[in-house]
Specification:
Helix content: under 10%
Oligomer: single chain
Distance between the termini: 40 Å
Structural class: mainly beta
Number of helices: 0
Strand content: over 45%
Length: 117
Amino acid sequence: QVQLVESGGGLVQAGGSLRLSCVVSGRLWIRNSAVTMGWYRQAPGKQRELVATNTYGGGTNYAENVKGRFIMSRDNAQNTVYLQMNSLKPEDTAVYYCNALHVGSYWGQGTQVTVSS
């Protein structure tokens, strides 16, 4: 059974930084180039939106509103992906979800990020 567990959320002031982690377990290996890893977020009253996606050996795609501020990275040995979030803005406040896409789509439970002004 594939599991994704996010961590690293919290409360931060505008302009600050946070680093989210997503550990993948259960026989899904992120080094598999057929696996697309992604970060999504959902703010209150809004639809879930894409933040960034990445495949091993491929590029990383970012949403326009996070380009230049967020960096998605991975540690294949730890089967973990990260989202480094810099220059945070109040509009970045949301629950952040990790996603793995391979045959099926797998989601973590989410981690809350709150940016105060």
